[in-house]
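Supplementary Methods. Inverse-folding protocol.

Structures were first reduced to a discrete structure-token string of length 194. This string, shown here, constituted the complete conditioning input.
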């Protein structure tokens, strides 16, 4: 069944959509894998960055408007994220512009950050401009990191074509492990604070 599966054709056909949807929802794992695919010339580097930027920006815009209209009711219900919410609220009060730009780079705040910013009544135009800039920088950094990771792996392993699936699984497992470790640390800190 899988012997006729052409991974290159699938990536070339649907890869940009995967990057867009992945960045709309999450991001970093998809960006690194997209950068590696660009290094392997399955995808083109600049379109990967462009689709990632648009996906990341639109995802944060939707979260911003959710916070704008439903933040007062929604944020108190996100008890699991209270530490992140309070951290973003503090950042917004002290550094409103910087926090819009930086929130996507702060672990654990990618989803709640834009909602908190929307609930803060920051100007939508200001958020949109800073969000566009932040998304472009974020996409460029992570896609480039994936591109250079592909370069380094190719240097050590040679042709990466036979290793694509193990590399994909390895990158995903690495991000899952990092997320679990951070989640456990955050839980331990919350218990300690309580």
């Amino acid at each position: 069944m899988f012997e006729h599966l052409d991974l290159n054709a699938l990536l070339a056909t649907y890869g940009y959509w995967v990057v867009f949807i992945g960045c709309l929802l999450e991001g970093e794992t998809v960006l690194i894998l997209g950068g590696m695919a660009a290094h392997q010339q399955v995808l083109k580097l600049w379109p990967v960055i462009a689709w990632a930027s648009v996906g990341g920006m639109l995802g944060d815009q939707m979260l911003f408007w959710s916070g704008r209209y439903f933040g007062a009711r929604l944020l108190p219900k996100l008890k699991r994220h209270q530490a992140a919410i309070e951290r973003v609220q503090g950042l917004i009060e002290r550094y409103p512009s910087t926090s819009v730009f930086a929130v996507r780079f702060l672990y654990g705040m990618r989803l709640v950050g834009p909602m908190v910013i929307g609930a803060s009544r920051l100007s939508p135009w200001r958020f949109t401009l800073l969000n566009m800039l932040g998304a472009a920088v974020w996409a460029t950094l992570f896609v480039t990191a994936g591109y250079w990771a592909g370069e380094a792996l190719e240097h050590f392993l040679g042709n990466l074509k036979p290793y694509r699936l193990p590399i994909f699984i390895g990158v995903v497992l690495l991000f899952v492990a990092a997320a679990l470790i951070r989640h456990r640390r955050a839980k331990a800190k919350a218990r300690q604070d309580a």
